[in-house]
Design goal:
Length: 495
């Protein structure tokens, strides 16, 4: 993985940049010491590290606006950063860019139970929103495994999902409004507490834009009433293929669980050793299926899921007896990523998404790739919507193992596209999948995406070097291409 060469002219102006930032954010809001900058040298994609030019920690939207305006006027790049939990390198720092950390934007500004909304600053953690409304029987549905640490602003940047996104949607389906600072410092508001907005769906463009269009400073999200009943079914299978078939049959029978997750044997053992969730260790694959709603409906659906599991050869079937046991079932799944970190010095977490029917084939091919590269892989994923999270285990201290892990990951993601899937489900492209974009998109597709980037950020100053393997100048993308002496669509009036 290579990043664009740092601009030496910007680096030479570091003192000037630091002085300007300190005028905008006084006190301890500007970090320049090398030891302190190391806390920002990477995000959740820890395989790659680089010190930022400088870090600024604004506390108000006005300060963010002034920082963005100054950088825009002085041609200085910006990298927005939330909690730094991105697994695709979305907040990877640049040696010639100002990292804007939003950790001080950590307040919930409004809780409105009548309208079922919460207004929060971007640095508020995902779990904190549920914690703020749980006493009235409400919760925030999208729940990434990192919800105790990841920020709601970062969730919007990556369009994060989680266990419950199968039934209740991703971040984009639960976001109602936002405040955002554009690259030139202008502050705009999109949406609000109302259900929908007229005109272009600009929030849909911003959600999942990976911090490339501006900096979000406030969000309005939807909260839901907690279901009357929720139960989890733990299902063990003698093979990954049988578990994959069971997932397809559950959805194929018209059952939409609140969550439907899968772990393979390496992930099961790691999670059990870490959390002691009483998982069966004699199975090759484990499914956790949560069903929620009215009690009668839940009981009926559990009977149907049990029968589907038995028809697919399940050797272990357990139904949670109470909320405490249900939470225990989920504890291992939620802690699977740190659990795998205990059995390997390093790992890369992939994030491809595939059609559910392709699960058995994809799992089989991943085993073959594991043998090919001589690297172990542990699978933890949102099986219900086909969002895979293969964890490739390696040791960066061993020669060539990082390169092998990268090649293994590229093969997995390429396979996801081959079987009808996509490169990412919720982690984003960042730098991790940037060079694989042509596997999924043609040149014209990528150029069209870049035109949206140009509409917001014509100078390419915000989070550059991410998502697009080849950056086209906005002036080039705005031109009409003449072929054979003829303009495209010559019958369309030109203005």
């Amino acid at each position: 993985m290579k990043m664009p060469a740092p601009d030496q002219g910007t680096i030479a102006r570091r003192s000037e940049i630091v002085e300007a930032l300190r005028r905008i954010v006084p006190g301890e809001g500007v970090i320049v010491d090398e030891d302190e900058l190391q806390a920002y040298e990477c995000d959740g994609l820890t395989a790659y590290k680089q010190l930022p030019l400088v870090v600024v920690l604004p506390e108000t939207t006005e300060q963010v606006s002034r920082v963005m305006r100054w950088c825009h006027e002085n041609n200085v790049k910006i990298v927005p950063r939330g909690a730094g939990t991105s697994l695709s390198g979305g907040s990877f720092p640049l040696a010639d860019a100002v990292t804007i950390g939003l950790g001080k934007f950590n307040k919930i500004l409004d809780v409105d139970f009548d309208n079922r909304t919460v207004v929060a600053q971007p640095g508020v953690t995902n779990l904190a929103i549920t914690s703020a409304v749980a006493h009235e029987g409400f919760y925030y549905a999208p729940d990434p495994s990192s919800q105790i640490a990841c920020s709601i602003g970062g969730n919007v940047a990556e369009n994060a999902g989680g266990v419950h996104c199968l039934k209740y949607g991703l971040t984009t389906n639960n976001l109602l409004g936002l405040e955002m600072v554009l690259p030139d410092g202008e502050v705009v508001r999109l949406g609000g507490k109302h259900l929908d907005s007229g005109g272009y769906d600009l929030m849909g463009i911003v959600t999942g834009s990976e911090g490339m269009l501006g900096v979000i400073t406030e969000l309005t999200v939807r909260i839901l009433k907690s279901p009357e009943t929720a139960k989890a079914v733990l299902m063990g299978f003698p093979s990954n293929e049988q578990a994959g078939d069971c997932v397809a049959d559950i959805i194929g029978n018209g059952i939409i669980p609140a969550g439907l997750e899968m772990m393979d044997k390496p992930a099961i053992r790691a999670a059990e050793d870490f959390v002691h969730a009483n998982y069966p260790l004699d199975v090759e694959a484990l499914l956790i299926c949560e069903l929620d709603g009215p009690a009668a409906e839940v009981e009926h659906l559990i009977e149907r899921v049990e029968q589907i599991a038995k028809d697919n050869g399940a050797t272990e079937l357990r139904i949670s007896r109470d909320d405490a046991e249900r939470a225990t079932f989920w504890a291992g799944r939620k802690a699977a990523f740190p659990a795998v970190g205990r059995i390997s010095p390093d790992y890369l977490c992939m994030d491809g998404t595939i059609p559910r029917k392709a699960l058995p084939e994809v799992l089989r091919r991943m085993r073959e790739m594991s043998d090919k590269y001589g690297l172990r892989v542990a699978n933890v994923f949102h099986a219900g919507d086909g969002n895979l999270h293969p964890l490739i285990l390696f040791d960066a201290n061993q020669p060539d193992e990082l390169e092998k892990a990268e090649a293994f990951g590229a093969d997995i993601l390429t396979m996801c596209v081959e079987v009808g899937g996509v490169l990412t489900g919720e982690h984003g492209v960042g730098i991790e999948k940037r060079d694989l974009m042509p596997v999924m998109f043609g040149e014209d597709d990528i150029k069209q995406q870049q035109r949206i980037k140009c509409a917001f950020d014509p100078d390419h100053l915000v989070n550059p070097g991410k998502v697009y393997p080849t950056l086209h100048r906005c002036a080039e993308l705005g031109k009409l291409h003449v072929t054979g002496g003829r303009l495209p669509f010559p019958d369309i009036p030109r203005f």
